């Protein structure tokens, strides 16, 4: 037999039919196109739902302001009737909004946890609770300018600090420090209205009793839902007069005392010093990593204290050559401030949300120069690292830089 | 009020600077930096063409991407790259990436083809034609000859595709009849029809049909030539994955494009393709840029371009709507991403790729995706089996993929969304555990789910579709390629990507992107005399 004869010779139906079917392919396709409807497609329900879940921005107005403590206010936000925001996006208790505010002519963003419940969003409002910081760039502005009727722009709900039933244990051991308690108010509300199926033990650290936010509210919730919510106030001041409080810091002893069973997931939100402290305490308790959830670290304020930061650049100001599209501009940048802050001061900032190196919205290209990035806030992809992309919000200039940043959409 | 005024002024300032930031005129504007858009752009700048690539997201890749949760970095959508191949037998993608573009990306070989688990099959199939055929024979004694014939037919089909590709959609009928008769005689049939004609036993069909979900239409509707070309490419050349997830090769392409003088604009969405008298004039973006060009290559689908982007709408010819409406839009996906607190070895995950289907009745499986429920079919990958450094020591990454008709999700309310997706995710995890005996649920450190809404959120494809138009025989590669010159309704409008001539999948989109670039180069040479060699 020759090779030719040995070769497979396929027949699917019959030789003629098979060839005829082939000849008909193009005419069939032409006919199907000709016979199809000429109506444009106007609906896209999946994109519609995607935009509802994740709006690019939300325009709101302050409808109510409540004093929580001497230094803390809760702002109730409703859709701005003059805008195209007609409803507020649903969210998962623990998520934050990235506020977009102009302060002294500079456009900045700040992430704030939503302190109201997800169900409240369906009823048309969010609440955010803000503590005035002594040198806060935004909070000073808020205290001076935010009144009922002030317009506020934000992102959609963002972040991954939420209870995940498939992953997390039945009890949330919530460790909150100072204004870091705000997401736990949202979670507690979600638990008692039945949208979040878990129990919560809240260990809430404050410096003294006057600094406790939502004291009465938490007390009420605890009384009404003793099977679901337990709140322990932990005060670090020298003398504790408030009844039923723990004294000191949220240490292993306090954790062991209140988080009895093994079925716990630790949720931590507070100032950076608290994360560093709690990390060590949980290590002593041998808590596996899957049982520890931490809210984004936040912009590092005292970068000089972080291991590996070159102390000799402290106090230095570097130059950053910033490219956006084909224009470039040179701006100053202080070594102890993030590259994002330098860009904001120059009104050149790319979009940003988490300000903790996590969300990637400010992702930019480092063309030349060196930046310092703490391992606590390094959310870069491996390939970003390889090709020199970085997150300006969590990177500190330690030499002159040349960078290429994306435009704000 | 002061706030608003300043915001407004800032916006104006930003708008002015952005317009100044971009040159006004380009030889080609590419819309979208997905696989197709990246490949097209890279191929064009290689020939010295002045190109602007515009992408709405802040990084390239489209679905070819990755994301970080905790200490894990997940691959967004890729299971395994077809068409890459070993160094001594490079496939089309490797030839483009290595030889022509020389991009800086490392690829790793996937160790075995797949493990397929159904009610009555549990088999691990190796790569390499002979080993594969022998394993099928071991599972289904007496199947050998018919499966060999499947591959021999696949060879004929691949040879015919190469010929049609070279003929630029104008193959000579006599040449086809003389040298590619097996191709002609199967080109109009479904995979099921031809596999039956080859007398492949049902159980052996079930085993070799496992890749069907990569195209996502049942074997009685999937065109045979497409399936044979894909399956043979995987089995003969093996499969590869990028070491640092897909972001590695998309960023490598980004880098090469810029080195070759191409410009890329991220965070910018093309909102209009400006057309006058059936000719492209330029594009308009979400930032208000108006960019002149006579040539657009759209990585966005025909569905989006004709229904949303062409401006004014009166420039959309009736035939364009008909073309879109005649085609069957493909599926979207549902992916559960798991960062596990134990290594693959500790958990007993030995295979890279698992196809787990209740039974391999592809039509029944396909119709499960019409409604919300836990589909009894999944394709699951453990990255660490092929790439031990994919996650920190002592951990592993497992992701479970199934598909859905996007319409199944259309009535989900935002407040029910998490519950709905978690129920499906849980069911898929349980099904994986049952089929393999591997315990996963108790070891989840990071958990994320992507639904059709998620894919819509980031890509804005129509209805969050991740696949292109369904390649039934009448709309498979053969008629698409033979009719490709019929679809130029608007001068200067070319398409590239997963909705393109070669149907969907990473390598198809990449190849189609390169093809689109070659057509445009051909055109530009005539018109503006651009040199092709560099």
Q: Per CATH, which architecture of the largest domain in chain A?
A: 3-Layer(aba) Sandwich
CATH fold annotation of the largest domain in chain A: Rossmann fold
Task: Strand order, main sheet of chain A: write it out.
Answer: 4-3-6-1-2-5
Spatial extent as radius of gyration of chain B: 23 Å
The overall number of domains of chain A is 3
Give a quick account of the main beta sheet of chain B: strands, pairing sense, barrel closure.
Answer: 7 strands, mixed
Task: Report the average pLDDT across residues of chain A.
Answer: 95
Termini separation of chain B comes to: 57 Å
What class would the helix/strand composition of chain A place it in? alpha/beta
What report would you give on this structure?
- The complex is a heterodimer of chains A (409) and B (534).
- Chain A contains eleven helices and 19 strands.
- Chain A folds into three domains: 99 residues, Translation factors (Elongation Factor Tu (Ef-tu), domain 3, Beta Barrel), CATH 2.40.30.10; 124 residues, 3-Layer(aba) Sandwich (Rossmann fold); 101 residues, Roll (Ubiquitin-like (UB roll)), CATH 3.10.20.
- The N terminus of chain A is likely disordered.
- In chain A, the strands form four sheets. In chain A, strands 4-3-6-1-2-5 form a six-stranded antiparallel sheet.
- Chain A has 409 residues and is of the alpha/beta class.
- In chain A, a hairpin with a 2-residue loop joins β1 and β2.
- In chain B, α2 packs parallel to α11.
- In chain B, β4 and β5 form a beta hairpin.
- In chain B, the strands form five sheets. In chain B, strands 8-7-17-18-19-16-20 form a seven-stranded mixed sheet.
- In chain B, 60% of the residues are buried.
- Chain B has 534 residues and is an alpha/beta fold.
- The termini of chain B are far apart.
- Chain B folds into two domains: 161 residues, FAD/NAD(P)-binding domain (3-Layer(bba) Sandwich), CATH 3.50.50.60; 311 residues, Polyamine Oxidase, Chain A, domain 2 (Alpha-Beta Complex), CATH 3.90.660.
- Chain B has 20 helices and 21 strands.
